Amino acid sequence: MRPIQLFDPDSSTYTYVLFDVDTRDALIIDPVDEQLDRDLAVLKEYGLRLVWAVETHAHADHITSAGKLAEHAGARTAAPAACGITTASRQLHDGDELVFGGQKIRALATPGHTAGSMCFTWEADGQRHVFTGDTLLINGCGRTDFQSGSPEAMYHSLTEVLFKLPDDTIVWPGHDYQGRTHSTIGHEKRHNARVAGKTLDEFVALMNSLNLPKPKRIDEAVPANLTSGL
Hints:
The chain is of the alpha/beta class. The chain contains 6 helices and 14 strands. It has helices at residues 36-46, 66-73, 151-161, 185-191, 200-208, 218-225, and strands spanning 4-8, 13-19, 25-29, 49-54, 76-80, 90-92, 97-100, 103-109, 118-124, 127-133, 136-137, 140-141, 170-173, 183-184. 46% of the residues are buried.
């Protein structure tokens, strides 16, 4: 069993729907406001009851639909406690679990992109999955130059948290800009251009030299996301 992977072309954001095949209880990770109708249609198509709308962090490039999904579908919202999303009904800490039917995901604190960033692990039908948000991307990682980011914290989250997961764990990133959909922990440990084989000092120097442009929607997105998009 794999997650339903959905894509928002404007922000290149991946949204994930996970569900229990027996109870039809479901969970959604990183929903996008402009895709609310699409996501509600997916839930209807699969006959799902949304239990949780979950954030990996407070996004800077799009506005979440978590609050609207709570209103339309009856879901509860959940977000990393360190992100300051005070409207989320469940404030998540490292090791916390969210249950949907007979399934569950487990929170991993992975600061670096933001101080509160989290990833989520899921085991289904003998396969391990990790939803990495903006922490670990395919052949890359999230930026660390704004919004409480830290390259030192990111290096630790990548090398000492995510790369400690089994090599066959499937990586489901929060974004991809080249049409790639997933990877594995083993592949990223060996080949990720940002971090594979690099020391902490080398990684910090690389991240501090990126000079990336400011996200176009950051000024509206961050305040809105601190209130679950409402």
